[in-house]
Amino acid sequence: MFPKEITSKLKNMASEVYETGPNRYVITLSDLEKIRDASKILFDEGFRISTISTLDRGFYFELLYHFVKKNTVASIKIIVPKDKNVVPSITPIIPGANWLEREVRDLFGIEFTEHPEPKRVVLPPEWKDKPPLRKPKVPELPQTYANYLISLASKAALASLSGLAKRRRKQMGLPEVVVPIHESKEVIKTIREISRKLKVDRKVPLGGE
Amino acid sequence: MSLKYIFFPGCFIPAMLPHVEYCIRYVLKTLNVEIQETPELSCCPPKITSIGDFREWLTISARNLAIADKYGLNILTPCNGCFESFFEAKHFLEHRVDLSRDTIDILKKLGLSHEIKTTVKHFVEVLYEDVGLDKIAEKIVKPLNGLKVAVHYGCHLFVTEPGGDVWKKPKMMDEILRTLGVEIVRDGLERICCGFVLSTINDEKAVLERAEVRIKSVKSLDVDCLVTPCPQCHIRLEYSQIKLRSIKNVRYDLPVLHLAELVAIAFGLDPLKMRFDRLHRSPVKPVFEKLLREGGG
Fold first, then answer.
1. CATH number of A4-113
2. Fewer CB within 10 A of the terminal residue: chain B, N end or C end?
3. Minimal-distance CA residue of chain A relative to B49
């Protein structure tokens, strides 16, 4: 059973805590800067770090720090945007994370700040190529489906009126502006805000200010 | 009592089929159906966007429903895709609270209600259920007697509540066509997909394995044209014939018309005067000429 006091301690920094199975917990942090504080709480409670998994989600990385205590596994999840690419190292608190973080650095190119020994561990020192498991920054979705989301955020519609369509409409006496392809600034702003709230910007670039 | 709806033409009709929009507005005006156009609405968006992000699709669709709800009016859409999107969004809001939690939160923040009373109505439903066949028959000035057609309803006209009659709306369309005096000829492939959704992934496969199957079958019937109430089917069935000329060097020359065009012609619209034949991508001129020649008989 995951101690209630740990959950309450983590609650301030977690955006989500959920059970994925018996004695299996995933804690998503609201901010990657809080990884040290969260790790310290678990470490002080007697958890040890098991490993760090990294998932390349196209626009961002998902880092999962797996902590184990007897038969309980708690994973702390942080989201690292590829533009940011920097995570605070937990090695100063948990020395056992030393090689794990260096492995992530080698394979995915993520930098760990204040790491006491930022050297290669998996790759040879003369490695010149890009980190081998790092994929280009592209939407995780197939382009067709990504385009729908981009189009919704940029014009609140999936189509727009071409010059020819506008001329034809005028000739026929149809309204010049027609819902839903009116490209109203207020509507676009609202749709973009909705997309941000739903974290669609983790899948596709939403544009705008 | 006059009928009033929030008009939601979708994007295909205004952008690619202005003649269809003209006919829809003409038909609604003739039948004294009032329409309100509100600039607050956004794209429906089509259900296919839910593959990219389900909550995004549901929230944007629910926002449109909530705005219509604010005006206390039902939505009238002539687009099968928009109809499906609104219909399903309302269903999810009512029956799947687990999937619509974020949507409800966002609607509250936008100051909109998530308890939607607005119903989405397809153009076919409005004509059959709300206006009525009697009133349609009263307005006919040029019966379309002698016109033989095949019908292509479009998949989303079969969308209904779980356990409902999927043939309810297609049968309404048949009745409307019969009221106009049209004879419907069947080939048993009315429910086949036009290939629109597949075309977003593989256009050639959509043309060869979906649209051509239906076009070939209709061509073997003794009909004047194919009628559809769906803008996507309309576009795909016309476009596929052009594409088939270059892929397989075969010409089908099957005229494809929208339901609203036939109703508008029966109500006295002259499609040749409006030069609708130049907006179609299939040879519809002979059909229009036949209707104008034989109409009123």
1. 3.30.460.80
2. N
3. A148
pLDDT per 10-residue tile (average), chain B, 297 residues: 90 94 96 94 93 94 96 96 96 90 94 94 97 96 94 95 93 97 95 91 92 95 96 96 94 96 96 93 95 68
**Number of C-beta neighbours around residue B222 at 10 A:** 7
By residue range, what is the domain housing residue B88? Answer: 3-123
Contact B22 A172 (CB under 8 A): yes
Q: Which of A172, A175, A203 sits opposite B53 (nearest CB)?
A: A203
Q: Do B25 and A159 touch (CB under 8 A)?
A: no
Q: Based on the domain organization, do B79 and B150 belong to the same domain?
A: no
Q: Report residue A122: phi and psi, to 5°.
A: -105, -45
B15 contacts A179? CB cut-off 8 A: no
Domain tally, chain B = 2
Residue B131 lies in a domain: no
Work out the minimum CA distance from B22 to partner chain A, whole angstroms: 7
- B252 CB-near residues (< 8 Å, 6+ apart): B215, B216, B219, B241, B244
pTM of the model: 0.80
